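Team,

Forwarding the record for the chain on the shared tracking sheet. I've put the sequence and predicted structure together so nobody has to dig through attachments.
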Amino acid sequence: MIPKVPLSELSARVERFRTRMDAAHPDWALCVVFSRINQYYFTGTMQDGMLFIPRDGAPELFVRRSYERALDESLFPAIRPMGSYRDAAAVTGAVPESVYLETEVVPLALLQRFRKYFPVNDVHSVDSEIAKTRSLKSMYEIRQMERAGAIHRSVLEEGIPGMLREGMTEAEFGAGVYLQMVKEGHHGIVRFGMFQTEIEVGQLGFGDSSIYPAAFDGPGGCRGIGPAAPVLGSQSRTLRRGDLVFIDNACGFEGYQTDKTMTYMFKESLPEEAVVAHMECVDIQGRMAAMLKPGITPSQIYTAIYESLPSGFLENFMGFGTRRASFLGHGTGLQVDEFPVIAKGSDDPLEEGMVLALEPKKGIKDIGMVGIENTFVVTPQGGRSITGHHPGLMLVE
């Protein structure tokens, strides 16, 4: 049986979006959604098509392919077939001269094709309003993320120690993790909003592979297969006694993803410097989680943590060398990198039901990336972890 997003859930999302648009852009008249992730959020299906959300009147989803699949998957009430934008234009008629689009994801060529049949003059960004609407999770969404988090915890806290063996390559490790996650219910794909971000399993590595330079905007690194595929893991770096094993990855269930990092010590403990730094990161995550309450701003959390850290600890904190992430955590959901972000300038107060991944980490020369990451739900009592509680640096004999 195909799992379907309830119609009440879809309707509530559209209305919350409209309310936010009314407040941010009082004169808005029409939003057109092209991204499949946002189409899924509002309609429960992701197809080659476009979603019209007018300020007044019923939203309509126009589908090029597959119309039949959209009908099978979605409870959305207004799904229309189209062969081209010409067909949609014949149904909608004239549209306002000013339209709101996802300017972060709509390529110029697509916009030009759209304008051929919908001659709009002004295009405005709707990315922020959709992101903020999606940031507040319903109980339905939190249940999906709890399922993802349970799989995540099981594989990283219980499954991986049995996978590690001396002489295996990073690529073998990554493939083994992926296989086990899918067996336990992971939906098999990792989705990011960040432009041109491609990750199958996650960032992973043995030893100092986890601090190797990477284009990915995060504290960790990854050697990957090579320049053309800098992800998964090296096919030549093998696991050796005394290695730090690092994995930062996402797990998804019915579209919703959690984010988690675990570390392991293979056969013997790491040097004291690395262990002390790791435990400080665990403590930082605990303090951040305690602050995840409605009303506080992410920037307040960021500032409070940085002001509490000794200057010596800041070297290679949230990165290594000149590469350092400018955040301490981020929202997650249909995409791993969602709003809000625990960073300077993130001044919208947290709300109950938001879900964030907290990831304090520190690079250690010649050893790798230590630290921790779990996914938390914002509650009046503070952050509630849905991905487990193990502190990491698990000793694997």
